[in-house]
Specification:
Order of helices and strands: HH
Shape: elongated
Helix content: over 70%
Largest sheet: none
Strand content: under 5%
Radius of gyration: 15 Å
Structural class: mainly alpha
Number of domains: 1
């Protein structure tokens, strides 16, 4: 299997996992009150924004196809690293 296909499959699975994590975070934030709730809601908005960026990169990846993978590979990998870091940090807060 090519690097492109492996990355694309892993990216889709990771996006789905992060979306599920966000659903859990939203449910937890609903149960909180006061400053804690505000802080969690702020973090959720940040994660939603990052997740949208990730989805955009995923669409670029799909549209580029295997032939165009070389030109977007570095940007896609960097975006994924950034998104992964954001969700790892969020897990410690939730």
């Amino acid at each position: 299997m090519s690097d492109y296909r492996v990355f694309k499959e892993k990216a889709k699975a990771q996006l789905d996992e992060w979306e599920a994590d966000l659903d859990k975070y939203r449910a937890r934030a609903k149960k909180e009150e006061g400053d804690s709730k505000l802080e969690l809601e702020k973090k959720i908005r940040e994660l939603e924004s990052k997740l949208e960026e990730g989805k955009t990169k995923y669409e670029e990846l799909k549209n580029a196809g295997e032939e165009g993978w070389g030109t977007i590979k570095e940007g896609a990998e960097n975006a994924w690293d950034d998104l992964s870091t954001a969700f790892k940090e969020a897990k410690s807060k939730f």
